[in-house]
Every structure is written in structure tokens, then in C-alpha cells.
Design goal:
The chain is an alpha/beta fold. 27% of the residues lie in helices and 27% in strands. It has a single domain, classed as Immunoglobulin-like (Sandwich). It has a 5-stranded mixed sheet with strand order 1-7-5-2-3, covered by helices on one side. β2 and β3 form a beta hairpin. The longest helix is centred in the last third of the chain and has 20 residues. The protein is globular. 31% of the residues are buried. Bound molecules: copper (II) ion.
């Protein structure tokens, strides 16, 4: 099976599409099909983009680098510039979560069902601190593990980015009464 520039990581399919919609979808290309279900259901479609220079001026960064969503919501990981990728840190996935990722330049759609904090990185620029986090539902469930693993990743550029992002994640947790 070939996907032109996109594929779906939706973990399960609770979708109940009408027959008419199903037939409509069958007539579309696979890449389009992968993007349709959330649109049909009217769910929030979040997006993260990879940048050489993010809107806030940060070099080699995802925007937003920290994304807050509800369980079951989907995120499109796309590209403002060439040469980046998205790959989950599989050593700290929440319980029941599946890894996700794509090749350089590949746009992926991921539906996040398990609550927790998901860390991910750009393969070509991980050492430059190009990492990000998706906070799903009660994201504190595995936050201690994510914090420890993130702090242990090698390199001063990652360390600076981890310190900044963890501070922001803690602020979100406190504001929501989760921490
Ligand atoms: Cu990159």
C-alpha cells in the first residue's frame, strides 16, 4: 500500500460512517481517506508543524512544542519547512499507547486515546533540541517518567529545551490543578 505524503495512526476505529459516506470515501485516494474521519465527525483537528525557525523565533522547533488535547482527539503533524520528521519517544509512552512516527517530510495524523504525556522528536535535529510534547487528558500519569527520561537525553541543546518545556508543562499542570 502506498501513501503519497500522509498516513493515519488512528489506533482504533469507533467510527460509524453512513453507507453514503463510506462509498464516498472509497472513491477517494488513500491519503485523503486517512484524513477524513475526524472531519466527518466534526472533532477538533489539532496541528503541529515543524520549523527551521518557529514563529516565536526558536531555531529548529515544533510549533506548538507543547500541545494540550483531550483523549480521542487527533493531531496532524505537518511541515512548514523541509527536512524534518516526527517520531515518538517510545521509552516513555503512556500505558496502552502506541508509538507513532514518519519519515522526513512525511505528514502524519495521530489519534491520541491513552491519557498521559507523549514526547517526540525530529530525527535529523534531535541533538539540536527539536523535541515536542503532546499532553493528553490527565497528562501527569507518566509525567515523572517523561521528566526523568527527557532530562537524561544527551546534549546541552536538548537539556536547555527540556528545561524550558518541562517548566511550561508544570505551569499547565498547576493551572489545571493536576500537579
Ligand atoms: Cu527537524
Amino acid at each position: 500500500m502506498t501513501f503519497s505524503n500522509s498516513h493515519s495512526h488512528t489506533l482504533a476505529s469507533p467510527l460509524v460512517l453512513s453507507r453514503r459516506h463510506s462509498l464516498l470515501l472509497l472513491g477517494m485516494g488513500a491519503s485523503v481517506l486517512a484524513l477524513r474521519p475526524s472531519a466527518l465527525l466534526g472533532q477538533t483537528q489539532h496541528s503541529v508543524t515543524a520549523h527551521n525557525r518557529a514563529p516565536d523565533g526558536t531555531q529548529m522547533a515544533f510549533a506548538p512544542a507543547i500541545l494540550r488535547i483531550r483523549p480521542g482527539e487527533s493531531v496532524r503533524f505537518g511541515h512548514a519547512d523541509r527536512g524534518h520528521s516526527f517520531q515518538s519517544y517510545d521509552d516513555t509512552l503512556p500505558d496502552g499507547a502506541r508509538s507513532f512516527g514518519g519519515g522526513v517530510g512525511e505528514t502524519i495524523d495521530v489519534t491520541f486515546r491513552a491519557e498521559g504525556t507523549y514526547g517526540y522528536f525530529c530525527r535529523p535535529h534531535q541533538a539540536m533540541g527539536m523535541i515536542g510534547f503532546v499532553l493528553v487528558g490527565d497528562f501527569t500519569r507518566n509525567l515523572a517518567a517523561v521528566r526523568a527520561a527527557s532530562a537524561a537525553r544527551p546534549g546541552p541543546m536538548i537539556a536547555r529545551r527540556v528545561a524550558e518545556y518541562m517548566g511550561e508543562i508544570d505551569r499547565i499542570g498547576r493551572a489545571e490543578g493536576l500537579i
